[in-house]
Write a structure and sequence with these properties.
Strand order of the largest sheet: 2-9-8-7-6-34
Shape: globular
Oligomer: single chain
Strand content: 35-45%
Radius of gyration: 21 Å
Largest sheet: 6 strands, antiparallel
Distance between the termini: 35 Å
Number of strands: 34
Structural class: mainly beta
Amino acid sequence: MTSLHLDRPRRRRLGVAAAAAGLLATFLVAGPAAATPDPGDAPAKEPVSQKAAAAARAAIASGEIPGQDEIVHSDNVEHLVNLPKDQLKGTNSDLAFQGKYAYAGNYDGFVIYDVSRPHAPKVVSQVLCPGGQNDISVQGDLLFLSTDSSRSDDSCNSVSQPASEKSSWEGIKIFDIKDKKNPRYIKSVETNCGSHTHTLVPTGRDIYVYVSSYSPNEAFPDCQPPHDGISVIKVPKLAPTQAAVVAFPVLFPDGGNPGAPTNPGVSKTTGCHDITVLPSKKLAAGACMGDGILFDISRPEQPKVIDRVQDNVNFAFWHSATFNERADKVVFTDELGGGVGATCNAATGPNRGADGIYDITGKGDARKLVFRSYFKIARHQADTENCVAHNGSLIPVPGRDIMVQAWYQGGVSIWDFTDSANPREIGFFERGPLSTNAITTGGSWSAYYYNGHIYSNDIAKGFDVLKINDELTEPAADIWLDRLNVQTQPQYQY
């Protein structure tokens, strides 16, 4: 571990302002609409060697892994229901929750589900608005979407366009969701290098949006290197159409992790992938490609880095972060292989493509991130299954640190890191491989606990609802939230 106290390709972007008639969302009711889905919506599929294919079939035959599309789970996990994808056929992405609704991102737009009866969720509306990843958050009557693929304009009828063209657009889209059956697109905000993910930081009068993006290129007019910080958007709650970028704080004045060849196999830091904030503690944790950071957000427009760490041995791409409730630990994830690789196998081992658990020691500006251990699911997957640590959330259990987490085709894992040096899995759910002769991108993108149930957005299979029945997690049933944006961690009331 290196404590610094103080190429992952993607489709690119550029910018054009929203035309008055351009803020148009297409609602899907019966048939397909006339918009062009984002390139790459179809799950990636790459043939594997005959040896790897034979090994996958042999593992299924011997019972080492589930059969193709077979569902398995631990005794304390119950699979309540699956809703297959409907009109939006693209890659399913992140989830957010508010009241009795779940909001599911998809590279082609988003879906609103009524989850008032978790065993029988219903589709309320589907909105076609292409632009990967469509990372999603909600606050009051506003819904936020991230666009991180170069589009012809900021409308929901845009088509793909080369990033080298100045007129192209990427950034944040804002919808009014007061009428859940008819969301209304009201505002767009273009941001440098697009918006791969975003994080809401609510204050009294305003909502701040921390926009994470990366991979600048001299050929992209609106995404020039160095790209060593984040865009901060200010959204007045009473006038959301006045939303605008108000700051670009530099988080890496020294340029961040240089990556290869200095640190072979490690991503060069050219921005952040994801940020998680804990507003009750005025803290944030950033997963920033080659670096993990802890920073103070007491002044939202001017976040201040407190500590910074690297792991140039086992972490390839710092992907996301989760605080425990007491804010004395952070779990960082490593998305080795970019989410499309088969890394949950013996060849990769237990410490790569895993979670890194860090204790937070000290006080104030003297706080430090101290590495304690790695956690990775021990259930090996076939070499045809993309599998790596991905998005998860806390299960609010007083006195314990328990997470539910997505692992793509590794499924959903429930694990306890109360002892940060000795984490352990306590439950799981997964499907067998999508294919035995090709690595086909699929599995759980996000798995989050919300008001007694676990919700998973599966890239290929749709929306899953799970229930965990375990004495360790039983106290969480007493915790009820009115909203959950996982990257804006709540203060649980125990």
